[in-house]
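[Discussion] Sanity-checking designs against the backbone

I'm trying to build intuition for which residues belong where. Below is a structure token string of 571 positions. I'd appreciate it if someone posts a full sequence so I can compare it with mine line by line.
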């Protein structure tokens, strides 16, 4: 192999990208607390408050315009010849979690993602491991702007405090190299033999209280679907051009909504890495509306919302935990079908290597029907499964979803963002901290559709997403329902549950609210515990702060079934 060729391992040629990254992350949880049956040990000094920034990057880098099979190399079968080495310049964006003291370094680290990559994991830039002095592979990324959280439009890098519906418009550019022609090596490895530079502008309506423009514009590192389906973006980059609140393009004609609950049933299958696995819903809901002409002669159905919490599944050797599928914006139908490309489904899940997000759309029409008592959605959607920086593959869902107005889950469709957060209805609102695993259960809850299991042994923490204050109905007392599991190894000590509040803008970090002792309460059922709120914390909760979050510390012995929490509320 000559000195002017670029060599990358075979399994990188049609792979690349990553799910959303967090730079300079600091846990919101009380990391060093130690709780015992003897009482409470106060937490150490709090970490520096974190906040979100919107970073703009100017990138110049060497790219490959096409890969070729190389039969002379002992190690690599697919290389980039010197004739295919070119230079590309672009402006990209990133959302980054940072602190006041690390802002500059974290912004630069975010931009450097567009120059990062190595032989084994690829990254956003599969040639990154070859960038070194004297090499013909170059990459530079400069920070040209960073906007702090206080100046950001809701939905850009932070969610809105309340839901205005899917009324915000994200203007996006996704760029990279389009794989126009795929060939195979002798051992069957596919590679792109033609990759023209491509940049596509598109826009998406979304609810800024539920979704982020960054994720929608990143589009799971795939070019928007066309008649032939979804295409993986080679050498990907993306840019959020702007977010427009209350955009006229996102206006939907007002019409009464009908809610349909989705039970714990099979709803189709998933295909990735050559493996097909069943999809089973834990529960969920959809809402529809009907729009007719002036004579009520022609009517069409709009799918306004869809949210399904799925059971864990394993595909291609990867276990997908806590997956949830949500409709990004209302999708209108015509003659009983939602047109190809006219609906966007976002699927979020936890993998062993971190959080994954897939944006999916149908390449073919999706059938929809709705009556006064039932609704159904049948069709296929495609996207890209991004298991880690290396394992990216086409991912498709074959859905056959039915809902009924008589299902109790229909009632969850009307929940506000605050009700979903405090009711533990979405795991995207709560993350496992020290020593914890979390999962939603439809079988144990005191309100809504789900309770949240907090697995682990001994001391464990969970942290909420940020929310804005004041919260509706704030009083001087919090209450929490806790299911204490049976088969306790130590009946004389059942444990304790603590609550904390963080609000960086109020200089509050892991402020202790209170502790509930579980000992003496019945096992195998829920009990309600109250937490008198200290005066300074009550004042903050009743004030105006955009960046508050709750943390919960559960300290219990390990049991065959984990404890469950539900219905955090003010009394």
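Best answer:
Here's mine. Compare freely.
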């Amino acid at each position: 192999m000559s000195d002017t060729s670029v060599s990358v391992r075979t399994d990188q040629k049609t792979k690349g990208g990553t799910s959303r990254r967090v730079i300079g992350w600091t846990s919101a949880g009380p990391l060093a607390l130690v709780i015992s049956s003897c009482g409470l040990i106060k937490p150490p000094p709090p970490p520096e408050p974190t906040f979100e920034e919107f970073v703009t990057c100017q990138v110049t880098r060497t790219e490959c315009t096409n890969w070729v099979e190389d039969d002379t190399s002992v190690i690599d079968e697919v290389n980039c010849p010197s004739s295919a080495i070119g230079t590309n310049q672009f402006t990209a964006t990133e959302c980054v979690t940072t602190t006041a003291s690390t802002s500059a370094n974290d912004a630069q680290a975010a931009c450097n993602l567009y120059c990062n990559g190595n032989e084994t994991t690829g990254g956003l830039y599969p040639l990154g491991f070859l960038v070194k002095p004297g090499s013909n592979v170059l990459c530079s990324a400069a920070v040209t702007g960073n906007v702090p959280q206080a100046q950001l439009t809701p939905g850009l890098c932070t969610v809105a405090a309340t839901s205005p519906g899917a009324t915000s418009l994200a203007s996006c550019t996704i760029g990279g190299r389009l794989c126009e022609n795929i060939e195979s090596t002798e051992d069957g490895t596919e590679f792109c033999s033609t990759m023209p530079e491509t940049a596509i502008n598109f826009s998406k309506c979304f609810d800024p209280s539920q979704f982020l423009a960054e994720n929608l514009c990143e589009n799971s590192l795939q070019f928007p679907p066309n008649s032939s389906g979804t295409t993986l973006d080679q050498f990907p980059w993306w840019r959020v051009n702007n977010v427009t609140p209350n955009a006229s393009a996102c206006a939907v004609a007002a019409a009464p909504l009908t809610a349909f609950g989705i039970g714990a049933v099979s709803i189709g299958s998933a295909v990735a890495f050559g493996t097909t696995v069943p999809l089973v819903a834990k529960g969920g809901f959809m809402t529809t509306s009907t729009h007719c002409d002036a004579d009520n002669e022609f009517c069409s159905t709009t799918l306004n919302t869809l949210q399904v919490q799925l059971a864990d599944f394993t595909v291609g050797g990867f276990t997908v935990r806590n997956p949830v599928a949500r409709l990004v914006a209302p999708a209108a139908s015509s003659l009983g079908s939602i047109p190809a490309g006219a609906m966007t489904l976002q699927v979020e899940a936890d993998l062993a290597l971190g959080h994954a997000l897939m944006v999916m759309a149908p390449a073919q029409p999706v059938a929809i029907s709705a009556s006064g008592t039932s609704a159904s959605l049948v069709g296929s959607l495609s996207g890209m499964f991004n298991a880690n920086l290396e394992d990216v593959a086409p991912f498709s869902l074959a859905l056959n979803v039915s809902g009924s107005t008589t299902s109790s889950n229909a009632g969850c469709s009307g929940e506000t963002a605050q009700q979903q957060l405090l009711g533990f209805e979405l795991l995207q609102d709560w993350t496992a901290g020290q020593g914890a695993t979390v999962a939603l259960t439809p079988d144990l809850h005191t309100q809504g559709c789900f309770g949240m299991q907090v697995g682990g042994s001994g001391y464990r923490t969970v942290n909420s997403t940020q929310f804005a204050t004041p919260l509706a109905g704030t009083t001087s007392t919090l209450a929490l329902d806790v299911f204490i599991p049976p088969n306790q190894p130590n009946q004389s000590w059942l444990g304790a549950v603590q609550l904390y509040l963080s609000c960086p803008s109020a200089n509050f970090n892991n402020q202790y609210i209170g502790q509930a002792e579980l000992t003496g309460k019945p096992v195998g059922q829920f009990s309600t515990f109250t937490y008198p709120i200290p005066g300074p914390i009550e004042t903050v909760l009743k004030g105006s702060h955009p960046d508050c979050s709750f943390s919960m510390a559960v300290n219990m012995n390990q049991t065959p079934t984990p404890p469950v929490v539900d219905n955090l509320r003010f009394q």
